[in-house]
Design brief:
homodimer, 245 residues, alpha+beta, Arc Repressor Mutant, subunit A, Chorismate lyase, 2 domains, 6-stranded antiparallel beta sheet, 3-stranded antiparallel beta sheet, 7 helices, DNA-binding, DNA-binding transcription factor activity (chains A, B), DNA binding (chains A, B), DNA-binding (chains A, B)
Amino acid sequence: MPAKPVATPSFRPLYEQIRILLTQSLVAGEWKPGEAIPSETDLAERFRVSQGTVRKAIDELASEHILVRRQGKGTFVASHSEPAYQYRFLRVLPDSGEKLTPQNRFLEVKKARASGEAAKALGLKAGTPTLIIKRLMLFQSKPVVLDEIVLAASTCPGATVARLESFRGSMYSFYETVYGLRMIRAEERVRAIEADTFAAEQLAVARGSPILCVDRIAYTYGDKPVEWRRGLCVTSGFSYTNELS
Amino acid sequence: MPAKPVATPSFRPLYEQIRILLTQSLVAGEWKPGEAIPSETDLAERFRVSQGTVRKAIDELASEHILVRRQGKGTFVASHSEPAYQYRFLRVLPDSGEKLTPQNRFLEVKKARASGEAAKALGLKAGTPTLIIKRLMLFQSKPVVLDEIVLAASTCPGATVARLESFRGSMYSFYETVYGLRMIRAEERVRAIEADTFAAEQLAVARGSPILCVDRIAYTYGDKPVEWRRGLCVTSGFSYTNELS
DNA sequence: GAGTGGTCTAGACCACCCC
DNA sequence: GGGTGGTCTAGACCACTCT
């Protein structure tokens, strides 16, 4: 049965509409990270369109790493908890090219009132309760990145050093597993600065040494900013890597 | 007429084969940057496959920014010379968010024998003749990036300061226009370093100031490395920006 | 073998661009 | 109006995974 594009005010292709419906189901938690979504034929039937149209919608979501296709098995909700995607947003890597997985050491978790850059980036009113997490990331016991992570306190209630420390995996895996909050994309700005006393101490470099300052805003569904972080990063033996295309 | 996938030893989808054929035509210069390639129906006829299969092959090349689709007009070979793509690989941008186009000031163009990092990155034997270009990139007359660019001398014969200076546009636009050499993608590694005397002078900062060191390898068709460059970059008012997804 | 995603086709029609 | 890319369908068959 040929489904006509219904009520298209300024023309939205059908597959776009399907993509939006799928996204809504994801936001609503109908399918959770790691789970399979219904088969293409099932979805085609549900939305009363052809399988090819569902396919195109899924193609788009897969290209954004929101869904993952696995031939012969099904289509799954992407997850930061899967080993291959664990540190998908981490751009700081050893120059050697080795695939090392970093260790995390949490220094501090505290509450504070929103202010400054973080609040602005997250669209929070000044004074909103926030959570600030300070963390050291190590590769083979060498400290490489000193992170300050800021979120609205309401986003992640009950986070403590102990809980974070006992969790194995990335922050995004943590948010996902504990709060059902999935990060879709992020923006970064990198600058060169001098290490201050605290950073120098933590990163085991001389005070005043040149280090990278990596500011990041991470977004969940609907381009909603959720996490701001500033990473201070040593670049001897490590560098910030990027693919341009 | 249904075309069967011919002689597929370890199964290559038809559209992959078409993609390879299209790429070969691009490498051979059958269609030049900025030009239109034949219509989908023409190509379908030429390769004796359906239009949908050609379409999928073109989709892939378009997603890699090798081709550009324009509805109602045709499909075109992407070009670094087009305004929108002029500085596609430039990640250093003003914090203000303004869309400024940089000016180039060429300091030196010299010949040298391949050695060190550049030679290794480009896969050149030590001693191969190379060209080294030193350039300052300015935004609104403020010096921001000091580049050292290395290529095999055979790649770009006859390049001089005068010729580069008189050319309006990016290096990649230059290679493309003058030598028919199109850059497809690049890899970058960013580190924080202290400005040496020369860099400090050129970038108008104090000697020893923290600056970014951005190493890049740029590739043409077939992942062939063609250009190595090191950009030393001031990050006051500017930063290296990146999208993660 | 049953179920899933992946490929390919053929044909219809739509949106956009330019003459 | 004629050409181009863009959408959508319906159906056939292939490749992969698991049972």
